[in-house]
Design a protein that fits this description.
- This protein is an alpha+beta fold and about 260 residues long.
- The chain has 2 domains: about 50 residues; about 180 residues, Galactose-binding domain-like (Jelly Rolls).
- The protein is built from 4 helices and 9 strands.
- A 5-stranded antiparallel sheet has the order 1-2-9-4-7.
- The termini are far apart.
């Protein structure tokens, strides 16, 4: 009887040692999984805190493979951007935007300008390629990155030709841009340059109509006072049209002149 407590104590000690051994082996086997899960969680957290989400507004410069607009990113120039109209001091400025964008063109509209003429700014003429391919009848895509804090924005593509010794606009397409204030957004417009409105009827009567000799992109703002920035303006040939234009390919859109929609 006196030996039984000693025997029970010995058995209890042996079972405790065995259980400790089993737990140690199990933890050793699970350690790689635990470390892997912890590493994955830590990596995911680091990625979430250090990786910036790509801004869709940067897509224009990334996707524009053959830009027909010279200096569409506004980086070239000394006192003003090359291949664009001269800026208007106090109204159209060539500035460093920060945000990793480099230089942009920024419009500043006071109330008088915003509610009357608005502000327009045009690129240098886009002419046929050196290979001699004409502009008319081919399909293009216009893209631009835009940021506004209030004023409305319209993108224009205008086609010109020499008519009786004078340069005249014979083609126009426009894109009224709906942009949330304060954020960069990319706006697109597909277009196919054609001759003047009513050309088919004139051609049936044997009247020769002019063809588009060159294009110009016009940036236009109006409506409310404030600032609008433009960057990465691009025109590239895409060879097809996703959405058909008007029947004659030359819908001459216009704005009714008033305080909210000034002439352009």
């Amino acid at each position: 009887m006196r030996n039984r407590p000693i025997q029970y104590e010995r058995l209890n000690h042996e079972w405790t040692a065995f259980a400790t051994l089993i737990v140690g082996v199990a933890l050793s086997a699970l350690a790689p999984c635990i470390n892997a899960d912890h590493s994955t969680e830590t990596s995911a957290h680091a990625s979430a805190t250090t990786t910036k989400e790509a801004d869709p507004a940067t897509s224009a410069s990334m996707e524009c493979k053959a830009n027909l607009v010279r200096n569409g990113d506004f980086e070239q120039g000394r006192r003003r951007p090359d291949h664009w109209d001269p800026p208007r001091p106090g109204t159209v400025e060539w500035v460093d935007a920060g945000e990793g964008r480099g230089r942009v063109v920024r419009f500043r509209l006071n109330r008088e300008i915003a509610e009357t003429s608005g502000v327009k700014y045009l690129c240098a003429p886009i002419r046929p390629t050196p290979e001699g391919k004409g502009l008319q009848g081919r399909t293009y895509r216009l893209r631009a990155d835009i940021k506004t804090d209030g004023p409305s924005v319209i993108l224009f593509v205008k086609g010109y030709a020499n008519v009786r010794g004078r340069e005249r606009e014979i083609y126009r397409r426009k894109k009224e841009c709906r942009i949330d204030p304060g954020r960069w957004r990319t706006v697109e417009l597909e277009f196919t340059p054609r001759g003047p409105a009513g050309r088919k009827a004139l051609e049936r009567r044997g009247v020769k109509t002019p063809t588009v000799e060159y294009l110009r992109v016009q940036l236009y703002t109006y409506g409310r006072p404030g600032a609008v920035s433009f960057d990465d303006v691009c025109v590239e040939a895409i060879g097809r049209l996703s959405r058909p234009e008007a029947a004659d390919g030359n819908k001459q859109d216009s704005l009714t002149p008033n305080s909210k929609n000034p002439p352009h």
